[in-house]
Design a protein that fits this description.
The protein is α+β, with helices and mostly antiparallel strands. The protein contains seven helices and 13 strands.
Length: about 240
């Protein structure tokens, strides 16, 4: 209604509207659009979902109303979900309550890379707050065929370069992992750890078994000789 009234003004009347008033009108419109973009679904968990354009997601999108509304809901079994094309981030109830109305913008960027065995980079940010008390499940499309002898993993990369295995799952054409903070994550191919015994270890086992068998045979012969059943070192 306020926008319609403004648009109905003449150019001369619009020129008399203070910029501060116009800014408040635009801010109110932004909040209304943000609220209207949130879908609410009832189920095992009450879910508040906001879908965002992938191109906008890279630069940061307001999620203030999403978490404000979700945190204000009295249902303990609730989730806040942000979707951007093939990527979905699901915040559990503890994360929702921790974020509350403090979040400003959320951004996500998924990029194919080719460095140090890494093939996918996932950058996540949430400005204005953290959610260490809760967790978020991140899922994105991953349909690449893992090379023979390799295994795919997701690592959190710290500022000093240290990496932490996120124990991700790869199934149904997606990679998923759970985190309590946002940063940079890499999907990496690693060699499958060797589970068999080396040739030297096998040879050692064989020698040990033969030696053990000889000891047992000697012990048996000794006992038989002692009982007179078998005579050792004597000729008739």
């Amino acid at each position: 209604a306020a926008r319609n009234a403004y648009e109905a003004m003449t150019d001369e009347q619009k020129a008399n509207v203070a910029q501060e008033t116009l800014a408040k009108l635009q801010e109110a419109e932004s909040v209304i659009a943000d609220i209207e973009s949130i879908a609410v679904s009832e189920g095992e968990n009450k879910t508040f979902t906001k879908e965002i354009d992938p191109s906008d997601a890279e630069n940061g999108v307001s999620v203030k109303q999403l978490f404000k509304i979700a945190a204000g809901d009295g249902n303990d079994a609730k989730e806040a979900v942000v979707k951007a094309d093939d990527t979905t981030v699901v915040f559990d109830a503890a994360a929702v309550n921790a974020i509350g109305d403090k979040a400003t913008t959320f951004s996500i960027k998924v990029t194919e890379v080719n460095m140090d065995n890494a093939i996918l980079r996932i950058d996540l940010t949430l400005n204005g707050t953290t959610f260490a008390e809760g967790s978020a499940t991140v899922s994105t499309k991953f349909e690449k065929e893992v090379p023979a002898g390799k295994v795919a993993k997701v690592f959190y990369v710290a500022d000093d370069g240290a990496r932490t295995d996120m124990n991700a799952t790869f199934e149904n054409g997606k990679v998923s992992f759970v985190t309590s903070h946002f940063s940079t994550y890499l999907v990496v191919y690693e060699d499958i750890p060797a589970t068999g015994l080396s040739g030297g270890a096998i040879a050692g086992i064989v020698i040990g078994c033969v030696f053990g068998a000889l000891l047992i045979a000697c012990a048996v012969l000794f006992l038989l000789n002692k009982k007179g059943i078998v005579k050792l070192g004597k000729k008739d």
